[in-house]
Amino acid sequence: MNKLRENLPPLPPRLHRLPIDDRGYPVPWFVQWINGKPDFRVMDADKRIRAVREKRCWTCGDILGARFAFVIGPMCAINRISAEPPSHRECAEYSARACPFLTMPKMVRRENDLPEGYANPGGEMIARNPGVALLWLTRGYRVVKAEPTFLFVIGDPFETVWYKEGRPATRAEVMESIDSGYPLLLEEARSKPIEYRDEAVAFLEQSKLSALALLPV
Known about the structure:
Structural class: alpha+beta
Largest sheet: 4 strands, antiparallel
Order of helices and strands: EEHEHEHHEEEEEHH
Number of strands: 9
Radius of gyration: 17 Å
Strand order of the largest sheet: 3-5-8-9
Helix content: 25-40%
Shape: globular
Distance between the termini: 43 Å
């Protein structure tokens, strides 16, 4: 049995039964195991379906209640789309404070040696580390088809909490991430067919204003 890393936040009770990898990190329920080892870059496709059908927490695997917590980046706060199902609040909060990719802004997601048959969950992915993470608490969401699988349209939040490097993020830090990522969304909107382009850009601009209202004071 591996031991938990000493520099991690206290482990919530729901996560105590998760296995610990050889680096000392708890292995979330959704992680795909390959040749006896967890690959944190790969979601278990069967568990992703179970999470939706059975309303299970993406992190611990237990049944969810009436409130849902998504861990997303600033661009997802604008388009309100998540590739990952929701978690319990305490599980999502732990992920935002402990996940190496979310707490180390300079960390880059490795794309080499991905398993055969691996596919992105769908939609347009922005391949960057946003540097900040958002805990988005909501009472609802809906699932939409997006080849090759599906995505999650998240409902209005009743609370939002921003993190950077495992601590509360400042407004300036969140704005820096938005300013660096928003041009990518704008470029995508401007690439729409000409008959839809103006509408797409206007909708995106309005969505950005709504997201800015959620920034920390």
